[in-house]
Amino acid sequence: MTIVQQDYAELKATYDPRFIEKVGRDFPPHLSFVVQEKVHGIPAALYCDGSEACFVRRRQHTGIGAPLEITPELEKNLRRARSLFERLHPIYSNIRQLVICGEIIGGSYPKSRTVPPSHHTYYAPHQEFYAFDLQISSGDRKRDLPVGTCNHLLESEHFFHARTLFQGSLEECLRYPNFFPSHIPDWLGLPPIKHNICAGVIIRPMIPQYTPSGERIILKNTNNKYTTYYNKTFTNTPHACESHNPDLDNLLEQLAQMVNEQKLREVVAQMGTVCFPRDTHRVTARFSKTVLTDFIQSNASRYDILELVEQHIFINELRVLVARLVKNTLPLIGSWRL
Known about the structure:
Helices cover 40% and strands 23% of the residues. The chain is an alpha+beta fold. The protein folds into 2 domains: 12-234, DNA ligase/mRNA capping enzyme (D-amino Acid Aminotransferase, Chain A, domain 1, 2-Layer Sandwich); 237-337, Arc Repressor Mutant, subunit A, CATH 1.10.10.
């Protein structure tokens, strides 16, 4: 099947005061938000054009990745996706593509009812697709469906999906705790495990909202257990020489070679007139996306087999390399008109 790429929204951290202030200022105070459990799994998207359906790896920065090999437990979702497409067709007659965004979770579940506190959350002994968003493409338009509509449609086709834990104002949702036992095992009918703490919560408007720049408003509130673990990971392994995975080391070496002044000049040439310091952020964002896109096109299969935490290390290293090059290069050139 032909897949029309759909980028998923970047999740904004609740500890970013500027973004929270922006949301509170630019949107009506009566806007209703919901809280859902955040999971830690393989980012995935289920694409369906009505006749075919397939899982692909979902990437925040470059859209879709390579197709995912799925287990028999996940195959049932392909049939459900086709059925959901047929259900939506009478409502959206020009629908061309349905995208069900979510994460693949599970694969291990201890027999013991108690596990030592750690950064890991156990969900199920088998793999499950945890759906949390529906996107519809019709022509050149993309539409994100409201939370209530998503939940109703996903339930009607028996998808396992994110449930609403709380509904209220943004301020009320921000006060909702992010540290509690994961609800997922209970929803799947599994025995509870002590110390099996969730990854955090997601906060989103009931009706999808967007900033003037087109950013969708979705917030993440990760608990300290995960935040501390990832901060420690980034602090201890910011460079290839400190990684414990030879494959990651090799990819980071290739990445360092791609972050060079020549490629930066090519990006600037496409942008037109660029001035320092005014356009530093714009150049950095454009350069990062270009490097990552080019890199993934050449190394998709090798990148996709990295563990999620290793992909986070990779993206973090990309940001460091790009920021350093832009900071050291733009001031020397001052103003580029290429």
